[in-house]
From TrEMBL, chains A, B:
<comment type="function">
    <text>Reversible hydration of carbon dioxide.</text>
</comment>
<dbReference type="Pfam" id="PF00484">
    <property type="entry name" value="Pro_CA"/>
</dbReference>
<comment type="similarity">
    <text>Belongs to the beta-class carbonic anhydrase family.</text>
</comment>
<feature type="signal peptide">
    <location>
        <begin position="1"/>
        <end position="16"/>
    </location>
</feature>
<feature type="binding site">
    <location>
        <position position="66"/>
    </location>
    <ligand>
        <name>Zn(2+)</name>
    </ligand>
</feature>
<protein>
    <recommendedName>
        <fullName>Carbonic anhydrase</fullName>
        <ecNumber>4.2.1.1</ecNumber>
    </recommendedName>
</protein>
<keyword id="KW-0456">Lyase</keyword>
<keyword id="KW-0862">Zinc</keyword>
<feature type="region of interest" description="Disordered">
    <location>
        <begin position="254"/>
        <end position="282"/>
    </location>
</feature>
<dbReference type="InterPro" id="IPR001765">
    <property type="entry name" value="Carbonic_anhydrase"/>
</dbReference>
<feature type="binding site">
    <location>
        <position position="122"/>
    </location>
    <ligand>
        <name>Zn(2+)</name>
    </ligand>
</feature>
<feature type="binding site">
    <location>
        <position position="125"/>
    </location>
    <ligand>
        <name>Zn(2+)</name>
    </ligand>
</feature>
<feature type="binding site">
    <location>
        <position position="68"/>
    </location>
    <ligand>
        <name>Zn(2+)</name>
    </ligand>
</feature>
<dbReference type="GO" id="GO:0015976">
    <property type="term" value="P:carbon utilization"/>
</dbReference>
<feature type="compositionally biased region" description="Basic residues">
    <location>
        <begin position="273"/>
        <end position="282"/>
    </location>
</feature>
<dbReference type="GO" id="GO:0008270">
    <property type="term" value="F:zinc ion binding"/>
</dbReference>
<keyword id="KW-0479">Metal-binding</keyword>
């Protein structure tokens, strides 16, 4: 009990003011009423709306975001049901040992073949703020937050230089988002698909394409992080690349177009090898 | 590669028809344009909309749902940004060793003190369908799907009796949802909060209240599963209850209202002890 009290009194994790309506609605009748109204409205606008939904999904985006109630993916991006495959957890983490996220990415990339992965952080993130406190938020949550503390450590020099606490927190939100975007690149599933689609005639660009964005609940703005992907991935490639650059012969065999294609890509020079990850960004 | 091909050819996990617009939008300009339009519209309707968002979140519902793009929580329930804390993974699983989900539940229950947890499955669920195939969908996804195979096993007698494949799949969707709702009840975090709020004057009912619902993408309907909670939880309580029934003295001490309250709840009779979980449903 004492730990819970400590937790409740921590600034970042303060108990919310309660919106009375849904709390008082013991049976949650509101959501079922709202649902029936939504169905009526959609069918009125488009009588085939749900018939199309019945035929399966073909989302073009995997969204990896925070569980925070103020960050609903579809609304923020103005996209309809059926357009975004979604994973949400505390502080939008992409952790290599997290079977949940790894399964989501595998499904989205290998099965749905999404061309885009959007990893979205947000300012005023309770998880990020909690990770900046010297407080034990008790397991499993505290273990989860440790991944953000690790990101602080990787960027300590930059962060410690920011004297304003709010500004430092905002920057950690951005760096956390970026680090999770890198974590998406690290997965074998994503790298394999990018190798397969690199230079392929069947896709207009290497896929999946990864977008690091941050949402500001205070303004509603969704903005892309300013990243020099080439530079960042060139740095990380030598450690995290799981696939060596493809030889011309292997490419020809894969694409099944005989000798003609074999001549197309110039042989990879040793000096460029470590840049594969970056080049695959293309 | 061969495994991937096997996977792609499996009926439940077939590659989707591609919606061309977002796939062709390499920089995802669409979502940023949509976002700016959304901000303008919200501010036009209510100039303080984002100012309120800036002041933090106080969601009344934790939604645990599938990543499937056709099941966006807010839209289905007609709720606004700020009203639903969301966790989504493949086939809405609640697995005891999943740090991601356990952290989400801990945050939602201990910090946000949500009065409701909605666990939502949906018909035509790719994860559930995949779990009914004798196909190796390769790790980590296949390990993830095993949890649904386990639910099939627990309900084999009922499921094997349903000769129509579609009907059997629909029933497994329901049973999977129910089993994950039980898994929410199993957590110490939820049980502890329910013991704390049981009979408390500060809350109108024992919290969090758990709702098992299924969404039908083919009709848009969100429906509550027909469950005899008391009966189900009475069966499971003796195995999963982590807290013994509270004595009158302990309750008085906890509520800090001296001798008066101590007399209020009748002493728990041994025969009723195993029903605590069910009674706490109240």
């Amino acid at each position: 009990m004492k730990l819970l009290l400590t937790l409740a009194s921590a600034a970042a994790l303060s108990a919310p003011t309660r919106l009375p309506a849904l709390a008082a609605d013991k049976q949650l009748k509101t959501i079922f009423e709202n649902n029936r109204r939504w169905v009526r409205e959609e069918v009125k606008k488009d009588k085939d709306y749900f018939n199309r939904m019945a035929s399966g999904q073909s989302p073009q985006i995997l969204w990896i975001g925070c569980s925070d109630s103020r960050v609903p993916a579809n609304r923020i991006m103005g996209l309809d049901a059926g357009e975004v495959f979604v994973a949400r957890n505390v502080a939008n983490q992409v952790i290599g040992t997290d079977m949940s996220m790894m399964s989501v990415i595998q499904y989205a990339v290998n099965v749905l073949k999404v061309p885009h992965i959007v990893i979205c952080g947000h300012y005023d993130c309770g998880g990020v703020k909690a990770s900046m406190e010297n407080v034990d938020h008790v397991p499993p949550l505290e273990n989860w937050l440790r991944n953000i503390r690790d990101t602080y450590r990787l960027n300590r020099q930059e962060l410690d230089r920011i004297s304003d606490k709010d500004q430092r927190t905002r920057r950690l939100v951005e760096l956390n988002t970026l680090e999770q975007a890198f974590a998406v690149f690290k997965t074998g599933v994503v790298q394999r698909r990018r190798v397969q689609t690199y230079g392929s005639d069947q896709e207009p660009y290497t896929q999946p394409r990864i977008h690091a964005v941050v949402f500001d609940p205070g303004t509603g703005e969704l903005k892309e992080l300013n990243v020099n992907w080439k530079q960042e991935l060139d740095k990380l490639g030598p450690i995290y690349n799981l696939y060596a650059p493809e030889t011309a012969e292997a490419r020809a065999e894969r694409l099944g177009d005989g000798g003609a294609a074999a001549a197309a890509p110039p042989p990879v020079e040793p000096a460029k090898k470590k840049g594969l990850w970056g080049r695959l960004r293309g």
